[in-house]
Amino acid sequence: MARTKLINGVPIPCTPEEEAERDAEELAWANRHIPTDDEIDQEMLNRALAEPGSIVRALAEVMFQEINKLRVRGGQTAYTKQQFIDALKTAMRA
Q1: Does 25 fall in a domain?
Q2: CA distances to 7, 17, 73 from 20, in Å
Q3: Same structural domain, 87 and 59
Q4: Domain range spanning residue 8?
Q5: Could you tell me if residue 37 is inside a domain?
Q6: Are 53 and 75 found together in one domain?
Q7: Are 46 and 85 in the same domain?
Q8: Structural domain count of the chain
């Protein structure tokens, strides 16, 4: 079945060149390399996410502060930074 494209809401058959371009895109997508966990440098990712200015770092800092406020309000001791990091690492692999 020939592919079509919409031009002003009207389906128009694709040209042979457009068909070939789309076939190449689909082949590239099908043959893409998805890295395994072993191939991903987890330490590099963690460093990038913890860089000053990182949105992930900012979210973690705010979450750390808010959790400690709730813990203290509930009569518990506040987490140390290391306890919080350890909890995050445990949750990452759960």
Answers
A1: yes
A2: 19, 5, 64
A3: yes
A4: 1-32
A5: no
A6: yes
A7: yes
A8: 2
Q: Which helix (H) or strand (E) holds 5?
A: strand 4-7
The helix (run of H) or strand (run of E) holding residue 12 is strand 10-13
Residue 18: which residues within 8 A CB-CB, separation 6 or more?
3, 5
pLDDT, tens digit, 9 for 90 and up, residues 11-65: 999 999 999 999 999 999 999 988 887 777 777 777 777 788 888 888 888 999 9
Distance between CA atoms of residues 8 and 27, nearest Å: 28
Residue pair 4/14 in contact by the 8 Å Cβ criterion: yes
Contacts of 14 (CB under 8 A, 6+ apart): 2, 3, 4, 5, 22
The gap from C-alpha 51 to its chain's centroid, in whole angstroms, comes to 16
